[in-house]
Design a protein that fits this description.
The protein has a domain at 11-77. The chain is built from two helices and five strands. It has helices spanning 32-39, 50-62, and strands at residues 7-14, 23-26, 67-69, 72-77, 82-88. A five-stranded antiparallel beta sheet has the order 2-1-5-4-3. It starts with 6 loop residues before the first strand and ends in a 15-residue tail after the last strand.
Length: 103
């Protein structure tokens, strides 16, 4: 089972500028305030979706081509010009995003 407390936000969209103009960010409800502080302004209620966070995180983390940099895991599909990314709350949690006690 995926532990959403370890995920700050996810991104799904086109490669390139990741300000949100080419895609969207979703945040888990448990980290909405923390993600807003990281962003510099508040996420709206329409940006909060535990379901979307789970779907994107599972796609990224189960992909064999996933790349890790700092507290980020991402996959790129250059053929379709798409990118999906998971931003974790801290780098040391990169390798333990799943709660193995409740799996």
């Amino acid at each position: 089972m995926l532990d959403l407390t370890k995920i700050l936000k996810v991104y799904n969209g086109k490669r390139g500028c990741m300000c949100g103009c080419n895609g969207y960010y979703k945040v888990p409800a448990c980290n909405k305030d923390r993600a807003s502080l990281d962003r510099g302004y508040a996420y709206g209620d329409d940006d909060v979706s535990d379901r979307s966070v789970k779907i994107i995180a599972k796609k990224v983390l189960s992909n064999p081509t996933v790349k890790f940099e700092g507290n980020v895991a991402y996959i790129e599909d250059r053929a379709s010009n798409r990118m999906q990314m998971v931003v974790f709350t801290s780098p040391q949690e990169l390798y333990s995003p799943f709660d193995t006690a409740n799996s």
